[in-house]
Amino acid sequence: MKKIARMSNKDLVPGSKVPIAFLIDYIKEGYSIKDFLSNYPWVKKKSVQKALAEVKKRDFTSQYAI
Whole-model pTM above 0.85? Predict the structure, then answer.
């Protein structure tokens, strides 16, 4: 049976189950944080700011470098 890969909590926007990669994709496509929040209304703006700070602190991957 194939094992399902799990994301660590470090890879999620704090307080949600939304991957940080989704947030970074929005930004890379030219959307704003406000656009992201309107599509994920349960995510708090402060959580998005924490996620972006985390991305800046570590090498998230070259694919998602901003």
Answer: no
DSSP code of residue 43: S
The three-point CA angle 26-51-41 to 5° equals 60
Per-residue pLDDT of the chain (66 residues; tens, 9 = 90+): 554 445 566 689 999 999 999 999 999 999 999 999 999 999 999 999 999 998 888 765 555 555
What is the number of structural domains in the chain?
Answer: 1
Domain that holds residue 24: 19-64
Q: Rounding to the nearest 10 degrees, give the CA dihedral for residues 1, 21, 14, 30.
A: -160
Q: How far apart are CA 3 and CA 24, in angstroms?
A: 26
Q: Kindly state whether residue 29 falls inside one of the protein's structural domains.
A: yes
